[in-house]
Amino acid sequence: MPGVIVEGCDGSGKTSLIRALRNYTFWPVCHVVQPHKPNVPQMLELAACAPMIFDRFHLSPVAYGEALRQGPELDAYDLWGIEGFLMGRGYTLIWCNTDVDTMVMNNKKAEQLWEQTRNALFVEDIVRAYRRATIQSCLPTRRYDYHKNTPETAIDLSPEALARSA
């Protein structure tokens, strides 16, 4: 069965998109934040529960690790294994990204896990790291900018289209 992974910097529109996806599919949502060496076996167990909508998954520890910590927190072998498993389950990746000023403004309005996301320079670093990670991803990937797209255009939300991605 298919699933969706929604990735992106804080303030990029992930939560709004996830709500729309959840309201359409009625799939459960799981928020995955595991800084400092994520637990790969646990991640695979969660992904096996498809259909599922993930609010962050395997690219967040790569992008945030690269931009804010000592480097990506998943190595190439872990990413290869995770991506292969996700592809086999029919997951689609949606990368939320909008302009940096909007993300910083959104992050200043709300409490954030990473205080650095209130600074445009750090947000730019996170976006660059996400861009590299999404380019390297083998998953079917869509980019979503809530200024330019509606949730319906982020992914074809018809059950037939979601089933075809499996």
What does the model show?
The N and C termini lie close together (5 Å). Helix 2 (40-47) runs parallel beside helix 4. The chain has a five-stranded parallel sheet with strand order 2-3-1-4-5. With 166 residues, it is an alpha/beta fold. The radius of gyration is 15 Å and the shape is globular. The chain is built from eight helices and five strands; from the N terminus they run E-H-E-H-E-H-H-E-H-H-E-H-H.
Structure described in brief:
This protein is α/β, with parallel strands linked by helices. It contains 8 helices and 5 strands. A 5-stranded parallel beta sheet has the order 2-3-1-4-5.
- Physical arrangement of strands within the biggest beta sheet: 2-3-1-4-5
Main structural class: alpha/beta
Q: How would a textbook summarize the main sheet?
A: 5 strands, parallel
Strand content: 5-15%
| DSSP strand count | 5
Average pLDDT reading: 85
**Helix residue percentage:** 40-55%
Output the radius of gyration.
15 Å
Q: What distance separates the N and C termini?
A: 5 Å
The H-and-E topology, N to C, reads as: EHEHEHHEHHEHH
Low-confidence stretches: none
Shape verdict:
globular
Please, how many helices? Answer: 8
